[in-house]
Amino acid sequence: MHTPESLTFSIPPISRDIAAALQRKIDTRTKPPGSLGQLEAAALRLGLILHTCEPVLKHPSMVVFAGDHGIAAQGQVNPFPQAVTAQMVLNFLSGGAAINVFCRQHGIALTVVDAGVKYDFGNCDGLVHAKIAPGTRNYLEEPAMSPEACSAALATGADIVRGVAAGSSNVIGFGEMGIGNTSSAALLSSRNARSDNRLKELHFGDWEMRAWDDLPAGPRDQWLDDFVNHRPPGGESYGELQQRALSFMRDVLQEEHETALVVTHGGVIRALLAHWQERPALQAYDITIGYGSVNLVEYTNGVMHVHWIDQ
Question: Which is nearest to 273 in space by CA: 298, 306, 243, 302?
Fold first, then answer.
């Protein structure tokens, strides 16, 4: 029986002691510096993760864990029926899903795990049988899992990944399949996260939820000419957004976290990056921030360093 005490994971922070050597190697290739764009940033990150100036991806692997969520039986959070989970697992095994195409195209070994699907796959070939239970319980009515089942699931997943790594793979991706999984993931995230109104997107006041072309041309054009200082009726200026976002970050830095993950809107991210890069706030929207992208900044000796943007 696995216990929570036995589930100790050691994930050391990335050392940057070879960052300068890695960057020098990237910059001295036969090309103009920076000409490979995001590929160069990816090469730097890969070298730092593997802690070598000669990074090599060995036997890349993808592990997809499938399981059902009790909440999905009622159809309250899912547009598709719970039975689709098992159907998709069978599709993975037959090679007909998008993940199969992705893995074939890039030479990635795919492992499909039944971690708790509400379906009896029998002795289905190609499937890792690791079912903890036939789905979880409905968390609207009772705990989705017992502590023992949760520990067993974590330990089983760790054992599977260790087995993949033991096969000389040094890069492992993870996927999941389970109707209702987004709601469950959101609940888990909220359990370990806090919200702060200072990270909200720009408050447009009376203009909220109105089509751009329906706004009165005069006030709209005034705002466009100087959105940093001009407020929409009943709203706030972009400069005010920037100040509240910076206030939040000052509080985070005072808490002295080793690492902090901040999830917020593109407008807030641009306002912070513009300040740290010493750009005028009017130029904030020249910074490209894609949906779901990640940006890395490091606070050292009182200075915020922007390592990479829009990855």
Answer: 306
113 contacts 64 by C-beta, under 8 angstroms: yes
- Is 275 in contact with 248 (CB distance < 8 Å)? no
Residues 185 and 110 reside in one and the same domain: yes
Of 233, 240, 224, the C-alpha closest to 204 is: 233
Give per-residue pLDDT as tens, 175-223: 999 999 999 998 988 888 889 999 999 999 999 999 999 999 999 999 9
- Evaluate if pTM is beyond 0.85: no
Q: What is the pLDDT of residue 101?
A: 98
215 and 243 assigned to the same domain: yes
Positive or negative, the CA dihedral 93, 95, 96, 101 is: positive
In angstroms, the CA 138 to CA 205 distance is: 39
Alpha carbons 283 and 250: distance in angstroms, whole number: 22
Dump pLDDT digits (tens) for 163-173.
999 999 999 99
Q: Which residue range is the domain that position 202 belongs to?
A: 197-308
Q: What is the dihedral of CA 56, 48, 14, 242, to 10 degrees?
A: -130
Position 271 in a domain: yes
157 and 80 housed in the same domain: yes
